[in-house]
Amino acid sequence: MLEMAIKGGPVMIPIALCSIIALAIFLERIWSLRRSNVIPKDFLMEIEDLIRREKIPEAMILCKRNNTPIARIILAGIKNYGRRREIIKEIIEETGKQEASELSRYISIVGTMAGVSPLLGLLGTVTGMIKAFNVISIAGTGNPSLLAEGISEALITTAAGLMVAIPAFLMHRFLVSHSDSLITEMEEFSIRIIDLLKSDED
Question: Where are the domains of the chain?
Answer without folding.
Answer: 2-197
